[in-house]
């Protein structure tokens, strides 16, 4: 790392990772909102509408902090919300055991409620059986996969669902348990020093991005709709050419995935620029060790994220993160992306 890059990091990182501890009164109000949500089925249209309505009553200062992700003041926001939440149950062995949020309903509700401040929470029909809230917890047999349910290898950094035009604008990660302080690694595009020549290449449609493995049928139940998996297979087979950088030069947007982005065949300049970008991101990753009850909200167009490796115990005390995707634009009638 050059001295110049090091100086930039000291300047930029504190601005881009923002922390907020809501006041006791704000916590009290959030608990009241969770009571209003009660046992609403978040997967049904009335439940989603109710969430949108309740989200309007989130305390103003807390709402302002959440909006800091939207207006570019922070790429990563961490809210400490432990006092709003009950003691969690033991970490289950599989996301299917969570039974659509029934295992820790307040956690699902809080995650969806606060992410709804930024827009519309949506689900993919091809991920975790089309659930609105995904559970990232270690699953036996997935240890070495590139999945949120792996453990023994780093989950390499990525834009969430980088392959898709309608990927999330914001990603919410609510920590249920993390006694081993496993790190979520993040890097904001603002932190990268990219040469003018590389930026020109990276801003051109000279790359393809294929769907990651979490959208494959074998990581879902076998009895769900196969049409959507056909769409995923088509995107894997014939991905469109895209740029990996876009937006303004002062505050660039990024669309990249360590393992699923490749240059167009034979484009050596695109390959070299991507290699330099990848090494640049590796050097600038910052580890955020989420504690129980902390909610991290990321700008998915500015920040890539991943997870460091850890050793699972499968004894109910492993790391457990709840995740949801939020879209800033409201597209009525499209609450799933590939049509559950
Ligand atoms: Fe992710």
Q: List SSEs in N-to-C order.
A: HEHHHEHEEEEEHEHEEEEHEEEE
From the alpha carbons, calculate the radius of gyration and give it in angstroms.
Answer: 19 Å
List low-confidence stretches. Answer: 1-12, 331-340
Summed up, the domain count is 1
The second-level CATH architecture is 4-Layer Sandwich
Major sheet details: 7 strands, mixed
Provide mean pLDDT, rounded.
88
Total strands: 16
Quick one: CATH superfamily?
Clavaminate synthase-like
Which structural class best describes the helix and strand composition? alpha+beta
N- to C-terminal distance: 46 Å
Q: Give the cofactors and ligands.
A: fe (ii) ion
Which percent range describes the beta-strand content? 15-25%
What coarse outline follows from CA principal-axis ratios?
globular
Residue share in helix: 25-40%
Could you please say which CATH topology applies here? Double-stranded beta-helix
Top CATH class: Alpha Beta
């Amino acid at each position: 790392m050059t001295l110049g890059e090091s100086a930039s990091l000291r300047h930029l990182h504190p601005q881009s990772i923002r922390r907020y501890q809501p006041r006791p009164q704000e916590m009290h109000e959030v608990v009241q909102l969770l009571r209003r949500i009660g046992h609403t089925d978040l997967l049904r249209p009335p439940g989603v509408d109710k969430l949108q309505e309740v989200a309007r009553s989130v305390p103003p200062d807390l709402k302002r902090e959440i909006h800091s992700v939207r207006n570019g003041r922070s790429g990563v926001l961490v809210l400490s919300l432990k006092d709003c939440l009950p003691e969690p149950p033991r970490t289950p062995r599989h996301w299917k055991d969570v039974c659509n949020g029934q295992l820790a309903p307040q956690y699902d509700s809080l995650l969806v409620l606060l992410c709804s401040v930024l827009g519309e929470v949506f689900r993919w029909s091809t991920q975790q059986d089309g659930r609105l809230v995904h559970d990232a917890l270690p699953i036996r047999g997935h240890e070495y996969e590139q999945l949120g349910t792996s453990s023994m290898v780093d989950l390499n950094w990525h834009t969430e669902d980088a392959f898709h035009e309608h990927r999330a604008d914001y990603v919410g990660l609510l920590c249920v348990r993390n006694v081993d302080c496993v790190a979520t690694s993040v890097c904001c595009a603002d932190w990268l020093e990219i040469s003018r020549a590389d930026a020109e290449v990276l801003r051109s449609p000279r790359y393809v991005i294929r769907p990651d493995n979490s959208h494959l049928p074998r990581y879902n139940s076998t009895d769900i709709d196969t049409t959507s998996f056909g769409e995923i297979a088509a995107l894997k087979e014939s991905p469109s050419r895209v740029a990996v950088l876009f937006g303004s030069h002062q505050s660039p947007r990024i669309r990249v995935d360590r393992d699923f982005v490749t240059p167009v065949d034979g484009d050596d300049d695109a390959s070299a620029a991507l290699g330099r970008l990848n090494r640049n991101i590796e050097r600038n990753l910052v580890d955020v060790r989420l504690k129980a009850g902390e909610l991290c909200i990321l700008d998915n167009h500015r920040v890539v994220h991943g997870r460091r490796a850890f050793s699972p115990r499968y004894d109910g005390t492993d790391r457990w993160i709840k995740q949801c995707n939020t879209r800033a634009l409201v597209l009525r009638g499209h609450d799933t992306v590939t049509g559950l």
